[in-house]
Amino acid sequence: MFVFYLLLSVYIVCFVLLGWIWYLIIKLYTNKHFRECPPCVPSCGKEKKIMIDYVSELLNKSSKSLIVVDPGCGWGGLISELAKNFPKHTFIGIEWGAFTSKIAKFRTRKLKNIQIIKQDFFEYDFGKCDIIVCFLMDSLMEKFGEKILNDHKKKTQTIISNSFRIPNLPLAEEIKTGKRSFFKNVYIYKL
Ligand SMILES: C[S@@+](CC[C@H](N)C(=O)[O-])C[C@H]1O[C@@H](n2cnc3c(N)ncnc32)[C@H](O)[C@@H]1O
What we know:
Blueprint: H1 2-30, H2 32-35, H3 45-61, E1 67-71, H4 77-85, E2 90-94, H5 98-107, E3 114-117, E4 131-134, H6 141-151, E5 158-162, E6 171-175, E7 186-190
Parallel strand pairs: 1-2, 1-4, 2-3, 4-5
Antiparallel strand pairs: 5-7, 6-7
Bound molecules: S-adenosylmethionine (SAM).
């Protein structure tokens, strides 16, 4: 009986995963708006580790409380992992997807130092944040860079981008992952 339920669960998980991949593929090919917006694919593997290590070092070094923002936080995997490890700093995830933002809110409900905002991040003021971690999409990066520059005040800011360059921001460092896949390398910008 146990084996039956185990196999059934594996079957259901595979079915849902396949359905989700097909949904992404069909939307990518049929919907222009979707092609211009990054789909909900979470940071993972080497890139995620590099981003977490880099942000952790900055947070550990800082004597004052910093604000870290993840524009397009998806299910909140990246930002919640950071928030768990650094209770004295503040974390904000912005996600416009109704269902996705609900999942992010639910999984972070016990953390007091994190806020999930359901909003278009192009309407958010990035001027107050110290660190921005993002995983977006090539076609969006220039517009995103412009937004960061427009909102920028005197504050020092570090922007960490998974896989995609921000062409109009000054590159401070490129951390290569040595991968050949579509998602690779992490780009660091300082303002
Ligand atoms: C590739 S996922 C990144 C998830 C997360 N940042 C991570 O690294 O694990 C991009 C997310 O950005 C969201 N998104 C795209 N454009 C957005 C916008 N203008 N405002 C808010 N969220 C947006 C998508 O719904 C998607 O969930």
